[in-house]
Design goal:
single chain, 6-stranded parallel β-sheet, 11 helices
């Protein structure tokens, strides 16, 4: 049986195991996917050694290690080099660890499936980590040129400036773990009074109170991105387009049951 891992600082609430194990089950693949919490970057070496030895057969990487783990990888594909972050590791036929970024592919496929319009939109990305850079890469590949970053560091605008800059033509993409629409009353107020579109890469549910107050045609979470980046990872590990045999509606129904449980 093949073993695949998700590694990150806190993976206990991740939906990734439910996605991968559902796919393995419906396609009758003898494989298991497990989420593993890595508390320190010093522990990444053990994961790399397990992959190189064949103890595990593939790895997904989530926060906060998408950038840090690059130093342990033998080969990066072209998008990963440009993005500066990876979220998928594979051992190739000559025992080299290869790093890929499937986040940008997941982001593009999410936009296609949700039919989010980009024309005349001003893009504002919250965050400056691996996910934010994958989003920028995806949007640039889609022909978008006007992109601004908002974060607490020196790169881009300070996040505290965001509420005052929000306008009707904005498309805001939250690439941080913080749920602004749920927890920030000022941001929520701006969202309600403007015509802007908000995309959370988070896939945690809004509370019923907040959900009833927002325009569902202008707010989207990142569940579709999570699904598509996972399917792309599976295709990389098995070196074939297994994802084409997955019924996305059945997978989403499965995840809905998990989320609502």
């Amino acid at each position: 049986m093949k073993i695949f891992n998700l590694i990150g600082k806190d993976t206990k609430d991740s939906l990734s195991p439910y996605i991968h194990n559902f796919v393995f089950n419906v396609l009758s693949i003898k494989a298991r996917y497990e989420a593993v919490s890595i508390v320190s970057s010093a522990d990444l070496d053990a994961v790399i050694n397990r992959l190189r030895s064949g103890e595990i057969n593939g790895v997904n990487v989530t926060n906060p290690y998408k950038i840090k783990i690059i130093q342990d990888i033998d080969f990066l594909d072209s998008p990963s080099k440009d993005i500066g972050a990876v979220n998928c590791l594979d051992l190739n036929d000559i025992n080299k660890i290869c790093g890929y970024n499937t986040d940008w592919i997941g982001f593009q496929r999410m936009f296609a499936s949700l039919k989010i319009k980009l024309k005349n939109k001003k893009i504002k990305i919250i965050g400056y980590g691996g996910a934010a850079h994958a989003v920028k890469y995806a949007l640039t590949d889609m022909g978008v040129s006007e992109i601004s970053f908002y974060n607490r560091k020196k790169n881009g605008f300070n996040i505290l400036e965001l509420p005052e800059t929000l306008n009707d033509e904005d498309l805001v993409i939250n690439a941080t773990p913080y749920h602004f629409i749920e927890k920030d009353s000022v941001i929520l107020g701006k969202f309600k009074t403007k015509k802007l579109v908000w995309v959370d890469l988070l896939y945690t549910k809004l509370s019923t109170d907040k959900k009833n107050k927002i325009d569902k045609n202008r707010y989207f979470n990142g569940l579709d991105m999570l699904i598509h980046q996972a399917l792309e990872s599976i295709d990389i590990w098995f070196r074939k387009k297994l994802s084409e045999n997955v019924d996305l509606n059945d997978l989403k129904l499965h995840l809905k049951e998990v989320i609502d449980a």
